[in-house]
Amino acid sequence: MVSSPRSPKAEISASGLTRKRVAALSENELLAFIQSVISDEQKMEPFYVLDLGVVADLFDMWTSNLPMVQPFYAVKCNPNPDPLREMAALGSNFDCASRAEIEAILALGVLPDRIVFANSCKAESHIKYAASVGVNLTTFDSKEELEKIRKWHPECALLIRIKSPEISGARFPLGAKFGALPEEVVPLLQAAQAGKFTVSGVSFHIGSGATNFRAFEEAIAAAKTVFEKAAQLGMPKMHILNIGGGFSAGPLFTDTASVVKTALQKYFFNEPCLEVMAEPGQYFAESSFTLAASIIGKRIRDELRQYWINDGIYGVHELFAVRS
Ligand SMILES: *Cc1c(COP(=O)(O)O)cnc(C)c1O
Questions:
Q1: pLDDT single digits (tens) 139-170
Q2: From 138, 205, 212, 213, mutation site for ligand 1 pocket: most ligand atoms within 8 A of C-beta
Q3: Which of 68, 130, 184, 204 is deepest in the core (most CB within 10 A)?
Q4: What is the CATH number of domain 52-285?
């Protein structure tokens, strides 16, 4: 729910209050804050509280566990300007999927070289826009995409997006839609070579809401074979590895980070100039937002107490069932 854009009605801007705090709120402080908003403003509509202290803690956690991996926050995960501004101030870069997302980030004063246009199927008008504002790194996974890029932004540096092995147990696998199959990689690299594109590296996404972080190891291994194939084709040396999103903020994060570190060491130990980037979305958005909603209906059916709240995934009423 936190990752879907909210209607303005369902949000209040609590930033004036939360921004003063440097540390994340404890559960009791958060509850007290929510109570105060409800009583001060007689608020019955659902609203979110964004704890900027949590965002900062997550950023610290990222840099201490994965210092060699530069985060590009996936804007689509929550494009609310408050977390975007905070992420920019903390030094994050950004993964934008559309013109609107690029505009939102540039409006914060972030330079275009801190943005990756990480959508491997872009609208032509958005590619043209990226060229006009100097966003010079994007992904591709088809020859058709290369054609569009040739037309509107031929100087753009490219990352070939590969389909990552489907072992991540992701709630939202992305492989059906995005990523070159292993047998498509060489023909795509050849097409890029023939078109005189700059292919700077490889990108993948193990899937959102992943549970099996070994997927990172397999995907990093697969990316390494693409680096080797490019070298065999005589292409200029690749130097960027984009390990995508799929991170979660809970206790699993340190395990995930160590899988990533070990795999980088194992497969890329001989690439000292490698730049590693990632596109965490839910990692930053998931636990920094808390939704407060009111119970607006109840009934007992089949020994279940059922409650309705005034918020839901489509912005409509959602039912919570609790066994009595
Ligand atoms: C959605 C998406 C992300 C963010 O994924 P999370 O699982 O939320 O971390 C990153 N990169 C791309 C290309 C995406 O489509």
A1: 999 999 999 999 999 999 999 999 988 777 77
A2: 205
A3: 204
A4: 3.20.20.10
- Quote the Cα angle for 227-169-50, to 5°: 95
Out of 77, 162, 171, 260, mutate this one to test ligand 1's pocket (max ligand atoms within 8 Å of CB): namely: 77
Which of the following is catalytic: 76, 153, 224, 229?
76
pTM, 2 dp: 0.87
Ligand 1 within 6 A of 53 CB?
no
Count, residues in the chain: 324
Of 266, 204, 212, 191, the residue nearest 241 (C-alpha): 204
Tell me the per-residue pLDDT of 200-219, one tens digit each, with 9 for 90 and over.
999 999 998 888 889 999 99
| pLDDT at residue 7 in the model | 31
Q: Where are the domains of the chain?
A: 52-285
